[in-house]
Amino acid sequence: MLELRNVSLNFNGGDGAGIEVLRGVNLQLERGKLYAITGPNGGGKTSLAKVVMGIYTPSQGQVLLDGEDITGLSISERARRGIAYAFQHPPRFKGLTVADIMKIARPDLDSVHMRGYLRDVGLCPEDYLERDLGPGLSGGEIKRIEVAQLLARDAEVTIFDEPEAGVDLWTIQKLLAIIVKRYKGNRQGLAVIITHNEQFLPACDEIILIDEGTVQGQGPAQMMWPLLRDDIVCKQRAQCVGIGGRIDGI
Amino acid sequence: MAFSKLEQDLLAAVADLHALPSGAFNIRKDGEAVERQSSPNIDIVPKTDRPGIDIVVRPGTRGEAVHVPVILTRSGLRDLVYNTFIIGEDSDVLVVAGCGIHNQGSAQSQHDGVHEIIVKQGARLRYVEKHYGQGSPEGRRVLNPNTVVTVEQGAWAEMEMVQVKGVDDTTRNTTAYVYEGGSLKIIERLLTHGTQQAVSAVEIHLVGRDSSGQVLSRSVAQDSSHQEFRAVLVGKERSVGHVECDSIIMGDARIRSVPELIAESGEAVLTHEAAIGRIAGEQLIKLMTLGLGEAEAVETILSRFLR
Ligand SMILES: Nc1ncnc2c1ncn2[C@@H]1O[C@H](COP(=O)(O)OP(=O)(O)OP(=O)(O)O)[C@@H](O)[C@H]1O
Ligand SMILES: [Mg+2]
After folding, report:
1. Residues 6 or more apart whose Cβ sits within 8 Å of residue B9
2. Is residue A48 included in any domain, yes or no?
3. Of A79, A80, A96, which has the smallest distance from its Cβ to B304's Cβ?
4. Does residue A232 carry a pLDDT above 60?
5. 3-state class of B227 per DSSP?
6. Which pLDDT belongs to residue A236?
7. CB A93 to CB B301 under 8 A?
């Protein structure tokens, strides 16, 4: 189980003033479940994921994995403990091929499985394995390769950051099916999808709404989704469902 | 003759040689040729007026390779050699050159190579030259190659020049002339560290109609090493040329990158891109999220960048 206890995150503003990006976030995520995190742009979703991965150090609070405080662990150590994150905006690398990065993500990966993961994200392995992760790939291609790495990692805690962004509709459908099949009810681990997508949101077990650096609502998807749907500004809906309130057990 | 373990290591490092090759070769050690073999299609002939050899590939020779590595193992030696490569019409060959210096003493060891390469009409040449040095920290290792390349009508040449370890000082001058329909691509890979210095000046003259030239340089400068690149493209006729210099800078290193384009014809299309930058923090973080330690992540980025 992954737990965040009273996590806050500050960045230094240009004028020396601190910007509070996360404010006292409390979350408990259970094994076997598929979670969606959604909310307006700039609300703090990516920052939250980066705190879990160890990329950002919280100014206050703890991150716990199966009850153990991992707040002091480095990124690499967390990766080895089974936390995996697919970036919203993955960096590019000159000279590193798709096959190289898949091997780094999963050193014992054989070629059959490597090809399988690329097909899962809608890429033809023959066309991509030797491609450079440099400027020659499109944004959508880079994104899919990022997701393929995460699938290959087969981690205990898996966090996708907007896997659908820039990816075509056909691939999204397939990807969703793969993620649902793999993580829903799978007690080996848990998965989180940060998403704005209206197919992903209802397909998850729970939806967590984040805005202004706090959890504005959390509940089963079948209850949260109707509240969020048809709503242009999530923020307004968040106010309707009660700011800061955890809506479960309804 | 039998090579010592040290000599074998040098030969493996610069020419990927683990045994005497089956085709034509010439192995030069400490200023003299110690092993030489011609093949039915590739003649290796010592020059009579000065040190060096002529490598003559017969027209139409295809799929053959010739190895001409140089190794220096005596401290304080200064070796000067003149080599001429004539790649016959319509042939298609690989030339593996390269120089390895082992300097265990405190005097400077130096190899100056003057090369002339003529790729005859319709021929294809792949040329690989690796530089490598090892030994004591006091013994300087210096390599200064001067190369003039002629790519004749409809010929094609790709030259790859690699220096990734142990050379203290290098000044490389490469001048090329590309004739009608000819094509030349020069690939450079360079890593300097400590207080090493490297200067590379490439000049490609696109003299023939529809000729093309490319310079692709990737380098890493670590510690307080210095690098300087000059790449000049001269388009005298309807031609296409491109220069790309991409460097990763680390520590207190310094890099100077000077691309120059000279169009002497309205139909010349010449472009350049040059970039110098540190390893991006987000690249390191990304590799660390996949489980690599920081040092491992740096090593991975550098080795793939230079591949
Ligand atoms: N490294 C940083 N330095 C300074 N401010 C940052 C940094 N990273 C994020 N922020 C700020 O934190 C806030 C939350 O950003 P975050 O990326 O977490 O939002 P998000 O919910 O993922 O948004 P989106 O839906 O657009 O991806 C934003 O105001 C952003 O500008
Ligand atoms: Mg985000």
Report:
1. none
2. yes
3. A96
4. no
5. strand
6. 52
7. yes
Q: Is the pLDDT of residue A99 over 70?
A: yes
CA of A88 to the centre of ligand 2 (A): 6
CATH code, domain with A153: 3.40.50.300
Substitution target from A93, A98, A101 for chain B, most B beta carbons within 10 A? A93
State phi, psi for B13 to the nearest 5 degrees. Answer: -70, -40
Atom of ligand 1 minimally distant from the CA of A19: 5
Q: Say if CB B247 and CB B276 are below 8 A apart.
A: yes
Tokens of A128: 């991509």
Considering all CA atoms of chain A, what is the largest pairwise distance in Å, rounded to the nearest integer?
53
Residue nearest to atom 16 of ligand 1 (CA): A44
- The A206-211 sheet, strands edge to edge: A83-86, A157-161, A190-194, A34-38, A206-211, A214-220
Q: Is the pLDDT of residue A243 over 60?
A: no
Contact by Cβ (8 Å): A149, A101: yes
Q: How many CB atoms lie within 10 A of CB B19?
A: 9
More confident residue, B164 or A37: A37
**Number of structural domains in chain A:** 1
Question: No. of H helices and E strands in chain B?
Answer: 3, 21
Give CA separation, A44 vs A49, A72, A212, B101, B244, in Å. 9, 21, 7, 56, 39
Q: Which of A7, A45, A47, when mutated, tests ligand 1's pocket best, judged by the most ligand atoms within 8 Å of its CB? A: A47
- C-alpha distance from B53 to closest chain A C-alpha (Å): 36
**Cα A119 from Cα A108, distance rounded (Å):** 19
Interfacial residues of B (vs A; Cβ cutoff 8 Å)? 218, 246, 280, 282-283, 285-294, 300-301, 304-307
Whether the pLDDT of residue A248 is over 60: the answer is: no
Minimum CA–CA partner of A102 in chain B: B290
Q: How far is CA B226 from CA A242, B187, B256, in A?
A: 62, 19, 8
Count CB neighbours of B74 within 10 A: 16
**What is the residue extent of each domain of chain B?**
5-281
Query: Do B272 and B301 touch, CB atoms closer than 8 A?
Result: no
- Residue owning the nearest CA to atom 29 of ligand 1: A42
DSSP class of residue A132 equals B
Q: What is the mean pLDDT of residues B143-170?
A: 95
Q: Establish if A212 belongs to a structural domain.
A: yes
A139 part of a folded domain:
yes
Domain hosting A138: range is 32-55+82-236
